[in-house]
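Worked problem 6 (solution included).
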Amino acid sequence: MGTLASQKNSIRKKMLLARRSMVPEAKREADREIAIRLMGEPILKTAEIVCIYVSLPEEVATHELLVAFGRQKKTIVVPHIVGKTITLCTFSSLNNLTAGMFGILEPRGDALLVPSDMVDVFIVPGVAFDRKGYRLGWGRGYYDRLLKDITVPRIGLAYSCQIVPGLPHEMYDIQMNVIITQNETIEV
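Solution. The predicted structure is:
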């Protein structure tokens, strides 16, 4: 079976390959379906401050969601990596982003910092999720550290191919409350 780390790495490799294997049109359609499901979530109707990631090309796309939340006059915060932690910065527009650590788009230096306890809902990416809400990321623990004291809803976005029967997890791994795919909404 191997160590927990090697089990996670094995799952990570399979999930990244599955995600990369998606046909572009199927990915675009899945992104649309996921966005529709997410926008229908009750918490998003009342949430005033939304934390959402800026997607990498292979992740569930969030660029249109960022624009939609802006049209709804929500305060949008996005992750900004500083050292081994994620800080949260206000998002103003896609044009005001620059490549940060790991090539992830982040707000430029003039963005305001927002404390994580001010956020009403967190929308996070993942490499894999299971039906108990456990999330497998890239293995660096950024989101686990960010979310460790968070009590507001945590929503994971994933393609159906990223849902696995079970994930190995440790006590510091943070569970999602909801996972949304193009085919279902998994309430934990």
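Discussion: The chain is about 30% helix and 25% strand.
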